[in-house]
């Protein structure tokens, strides 16, 4: 631990566990991740029936089958 002018610094920039403390409510909340989709709109645009309805969607399903994906669509 480095000493500067009699003071001992041991504060970590990123504490263990990636938690943040909100100053207004004084509670600990986990850091949210970026992609948190709503399931129904996502299934309407990326679901199996939507993929199989268009030629490009069928192409996507064929490529995913060929690659061996367990999940073909959302």
UniProtKB/TrEMBL annotation:
One of the Pfam families matching this protein, by short name: Ribosomal_L34
One GO CC term, this protein: ribosome
GO molecular function, one term: structural constituent of ribosome
Annotated GO biological process: translation
Basic residues compositional bias, start-end: 61-74
Keywords, alphabetical: Ribonucleoprotein, Ribosomal protein
Region described as Disordered: 36-74
UniProt xrefs under InterPro entries: Ribosomal_bL34, Ribosomal_bL34_CS
UniProt record similarity statement: Belongs to the bacterial ribosomal protein bL34 family.
HAMAP family, alphabetized: Ribosomal_bL34
Protein name in the entry: Large ribosomal subunit protein bL34
